[in-house]
Amino acid sequence: MTRDWWEFKRHKHELFTSQIVLDEIAVGEKAMANLRLKTLAEIPVLDATIEAAELTRKILASGLVPKKADADAAHIALATVHQMDILLTWNFRHIANVEIQARLRRLVKTAGCELPTISTMEEMIGELYEHND
């Protein structure tokens, strides 16, 4: 699913990543980690800003994302602060979780921000199969 979307549809989107993602994909079997890193080598990396760090702290302090999942909170904060349209994730536990998203939306609004649309690859892949005429 991810490979299909990456091959056929990624060029229709302006992609960004973060150092958090790069750190995550660098883990694991060395050849596969290197392939993942090579794949994202040309994707711009979002700056880790003071605003993103502050929003990460607010998200963690709210208890919506547990402290042990601070990288997940940082993903959300970076995408929010940098005004990304979509945060694409495979993380169903803390990010692509409808119950958490509704409360996150209210929380980030109090910080003067707007939560990006949080989407899973399953939701994005429909775009591929529905419009691939």
Question: What topology emerges from the helices and strands here?
Answer:
Blueprint: H1 2-8, H2 19-25, H3 30-39, H4 50-62, H5 70-81, E1 86-89, H6 98-110, E2 117-120, H7 121-130
Parallel strand pairs: 1-2
Short description:
The chain is mainly alpha-helical and 133 residues long. It contains seven helices and two strands; from the N terminus they run H-H-H-H-H-E-H-E-H.
List the keywords.
54% helix; 133 residues; two-stranded parallel sheet; mainly alpha; Rossmann fold
Number of strands: 2
Query: Rg to the nearest angstrom?
Result: 15 Å
- Percentage of residues in helical conformation: 40-55%
Low-confidence stretches: none
Describe the sheet with the most strands: 2 strands, parallel
What structural class results from the helix and strand content? mainly alpha
Mean pLDDT over the full residue set: 89
CATH architecture: 3-Layer(aba) Sandwich
N-to-C terminal Cα separation, in Å?
A: 18 Å
Oligomer: single chain
CATH topology name: Rossmann fold
The strand order across the widest sheet is 1-2
CATH class: Alpha Beta
Proportion in β-strands: 5-15%
Number of discrete domains: 1
What is the overall shape? globular
Q: Number of helical runs?
A: 7
The ordered string of helix (H) and strand (E) elements is HHHHHEHEH
What would your notes on this structure say?
By secondary structure, the protein is mainly alpha-helical. It has a single domain (2-130), classed as Rossmann fold (3-Layer(aba) Sandwich). It has seven helices and two strands. The protein has a two-stranded parallel ribbon. The longest helix has 13 residues, at 50-62. The two termini are 18 Å apart. The model has no long low-confidence stretch (mean pLDDT 89).
